Amino acid sequence: MKYKDAKEEIKNRISIVDVIKEYVPLKQSGSNWLGICPFHPDKNPSMSVSESRKMFKCFACNEAGDVFHFLEKYLNISYFDAVKRLAKVVNIEIDNDYQSTAEYKKNEARKEALYKLHKDVANLYYKYLHSDVGKVAYDYLTKKRKLNDKTILKFGLGYAPKNTTLLYNKLKEMGYDDEVIFDSTLFRLNDENRVVGYFYDRIIFPVVDINQHIIGFQSRTLNKEEEKTRKYLNSKTTLIFHKDNMLYGYNIAFYSKADYYILCEGNMDVITLYQNGYDNAMGAQGTAFNDKQIFLLKRKPKKIYLCEDMDDAGIKAKNHIADMLRKHNFETYMIDLNPVKDVDEFLNDSRLGKSEFVKRISDPIPSILYYAMTSKLGLDLDNPYDFEKYIDLIVTKLISIDNSIVRENYAKKIALQEKIDSNKLLNLISERLKGNSISKSDLQGIKDETKKITLNEDSEEFKQESNFIYLIYINEEYRDKIRDIVSVDDLHYEVTKILYEKYLSGVKIDSIFNEIENYDQSIVDIAKRILTYNYNYDESNTNLMKDTLNKIIRNIKINSIKSTEGDNLDNMYETNIKIKELMSKKFL
Question: Dihedral angle at the C-alpha atoms of 15, 17, 20, 21, nearest 10 degrees?
Answer without folding.
Answer: -120
